[in-house]
């Protein structure tokens, strides 16, 4: 059984979807802890499912590196097989990434490498894109530059706002995330080979 830690900053909609999937007896992964960088509404989902939580408030530390050290200490207590960033609106220090990669994944509301960064949906609209998407990636020390594990296109409609487009991307993100976690748990997806060139036929 794959053990998963989830890190959030907000409402935790992806977390909720993952918790619901993991509640099924035939799902091969379990969320063992939920952490956050602020007092997040998503903690309510963890509480409902009986999942322990921890809080490492970013603003209480003098630097990103000191925050990362405490975050790493909290994660190490649980020693999960996989860490999922689920709307964590904070760049992780390189020390945390190095400690967990490639067992550290994130979702992004764009079809990477298109529109990386914190405003992927807004940037797609500003660029006049006719389609965008959702991606699940391995986290590296860049900004949404890690190996892509799964992605899917989402059309941009003529009357889309940032909110309406994001609301249509979110279900795709959730579905991709759940499938990626399942494939990691079953061994179908080998994170140690993520980003490796495909074998020559």
TrEMBL record:
It is an enzyme of class 2 (transferase). GO terms for biological process: 'de novo' IMP biosynthetic process. It catalyses: N(1)-(5-phospho-beta-D-ribosyl)glycinamide + (6R)-10-formyltetrahydrofolate = N(2)-formyl-N(1)-(5-phospho-beta-D-ribosyl)glycinamide + (6S)-5,6,7,8-tetrahydrofolate + H(+). (6R)-10-formyltetrahydrofolate binds at residues 64, 89-92, 106. Keywords: Purine biosynthesis, Transferase. Residues 4-181 form the Formyl transferase N-terminal domain. GO terms for molecular function: phosphoribosylglycinamide formyltransferase activity. Pathway: Purine metabolism; IMP biosynthesis via de novo pathway; N(2)-formyl-N(1)-(5-phospho-D-ribosyl)glycinamide from N(1)-(5-phospho-D-ribosyl)glycinamide (10-formyl THF route): step 1/1. Pfam families: Formyl_trans_N. Its EC number is 2.1.2.2. The keyword Transferase applies. Gene3D superfamilies: Formyl transferase, N-terminal domain. The active site is at 108 (proton donor). N(1)-(5-phospho-beta-D-ribosyl)glycinamide binds at residues 12-14. GO terms for cellular component: cytosol. The record marks 144 as: Raises pKa of active site His. Catalyzes the transfer of a formyl group from 10-formyltetrahydrofolate to 5-phospho-ribosyl-glycinamide (GAR), producing 5-phospho-ribosyl-N-formylglycinamide (FGAR) and tetrahydrofolate. Belongs to the GART family. This is Phosphoribosylglycinamide formyltransferase. The lineage of its organism: Bacteria, Bacillati, Actinomycetota, Actinomycetes, Micrococcales. The gene is purN.
């Amino acid at each position: 059984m794959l053990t998963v830690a989830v890190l959030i900053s907000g409402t935790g909609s992806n977390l909720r979807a993952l918790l619901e999937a993991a509640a099924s007896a035939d799902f091969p992964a379990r969320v063992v802890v939920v952490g956050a960088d602020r007092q997040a509404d998503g903690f309510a989902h963890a509480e409902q499912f009986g999942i322990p939580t921890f809080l490492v408030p970013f603003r209480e530390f003098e630097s990103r590196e000191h925050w990362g050290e405490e975050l790493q200490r909290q994660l190490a207590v649980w020693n999960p097989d996989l860490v999922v960033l689920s709307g964590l609106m904070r760049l992780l220090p390189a020390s945390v990434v190095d400690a967990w990669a490639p067992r550290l994944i994130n979702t992004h509301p764009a079809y990477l490498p298109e529109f990386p960064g914190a405003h992927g949906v807004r940037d797609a609209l500003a660029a006049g894109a006719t389609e965008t998407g959702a991606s699940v990636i391995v986290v590296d020390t860049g900004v949404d530059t890690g190996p892509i594990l799964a992605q899917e296109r989402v059309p941009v409609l003529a009357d889309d706002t940032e909110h309406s487009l994001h609301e249509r991307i979110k279900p795709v993100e959730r579905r991709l995330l759940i499938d990626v976690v399942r494939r990691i748990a079953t061994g179908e997806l080998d994170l140690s080979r993520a980003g490796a060139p495909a074998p020559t036929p």
